[in-house]
Amino acid sequence: MGLLKAALGAVGGALADTWKEFFYCEALDKETLMVKGQKQIGNRSSNTRGNDNIISSGSGIVVADGQCMIIVDQGKVVEVCAEPGEFTYDASTEPSLFSGNLGESIIETFKIMGKRIGYGGDTGHDQRVYYFNTKELLDNKFGTPNPIPFRVVDRNIGLDIDVSVRCSGVYSYKIADPIKFYTNVCGNVTEEYKRSEIEDQLKTEFIAALQPAFGQLSTLGLRPNEIVTHNVELEQAMNQQLSAKWGELRGLQIVNVAMGSVTLPEEDQELIKQTQRGAALSNPALAGGVMAGAAANAMENAAKNEGGAMNGFVGMGMAMNASGGAINGLFQQAAAQGQQGMPQQAAPAPAPAPAAPTAEQAAGAVQADAAAPSAGPKFCSQCGKPVTPGAKFCAECGSPLQ
After folding, report:
1. Tens digit of pLDDT per residue, the chain (402 long)?
2. Whether residue 102 sits in one domain with residue 43
């Protein structure tokens, strides 16, 4: 038994006159994975009383785009066709295969199945036609009910920590090997097999495969927020993780994964920031700049302290004496590293930070500032009236002015 292209199988007369039955499947919606083919018996058919589960030799079978047709004889797959067109069923030929766009996997599967089937047949056999939906099945939503461990690796700064992520999105898949799907999933269904019958199982297995797939992405040095930009790598990793359960067992294949969001707990975000900040300060130039900026801020705050300005500057002077050398040392170390990295054109060393005032200098400055004459008006200590600048006696009460 086998399939022949309709144009090649017509020998003499009109092709319609030779067909005993006609099998055709309407468009399969996105919720239907497989449906049993029904005979379309017309006025010119010579087999109007045939058995529903018998395919007469010479019957016509049509395969549309996005479909794969298989013929099952006594519960075993004997014909596979995923190439769109019209075909004639001939019981006198050997099993045939029109793989269409299914690829090499379906060919190898059919070869293995072909070793276990018999040729020919009679009216006592149970023969059925099934049509499979081979289009991409879209909009399969997923979300992680529990956080998934993700290893954050950044070799540039020596970062290697484990965090927890939550993610959500959608994925799509397709039936890449209808023989495996028929053999291990749906079997001899009487009418159709719906997507809802396997959806929960697939979603659970998909989420379980996310953790090892994320482990593969972490080797690329990705941060969690960069996962959404690497959907191709995630798709490949998911197919690799699901190859045993989905590919080899059920004949399914992940087509696309679109990650909607990836979030981290606040404590994990803060951990990454602190680690990155510490790694950044290992750079001598950055560390020196941070210390110099902190010292400048401290001096500004001390100057704003009216009550304890002198004590603030005295303390600042002692601190700057202790840290000024360290800051200069950091800048010199950064300059030396720059010279080693560019021997042909060494970058000029940064100007040394200004020397910090000593405690005595800071105290003297405060005292001098306090002793300086005020630019505002003066008043008489006896009557409180304003006095003329430079006068020695109050013009109102005659009291001597200090």
Report:
1. 566 665 444 443 334 434 467 888 988 999 999 999 988 765 555 555 556 777 877 788 899 999 999 998 888 888 888 889 988 887 766 566 665 666 666 666 666 555 444 433 334 468 899 999 999 999 999 999 888 888 887 776 677 788 889 999 999 999 999 999 999 999 888 899 999 999 999 999 999 999 899 888 888 878 788 888 888 899 899 998 998 889 999 999 999 999 888 888 888 888 777 776 776 666 555 555 555 566 666 656 655 665 555 555 455 554 545 555 555 655 566 566 565 544 444 445 555 555 555 555 555 554 555 444 444 567 777 777 777 777 777 777 767 776
2. yes
Strands 137-143 and 76-81: unpaired
Asked if 164 contacts 149 with a C-beta cutoff of 8 angstroms, the reply is yes
Distance between CA atoms of residues 49 and 38, nearest Å? 14
* CA distances to 71, 170, 336 from 56, in Å: 12, 44, 90
214, 246, 269 - which closes a domain = 269
Structural domain count of the chain: 4
Separation of alpha carbons 60 and 98, rounded Å: 15
Residue of 227, 202, 228 lying closest to 215 (CA atoms): 227
Is 274 inside any structural domain? no
| 3-state SS class at 248 | helix
**Domain of residue 391, residue span:** 375-402
| 147 and 262 housed in the same domain | yes
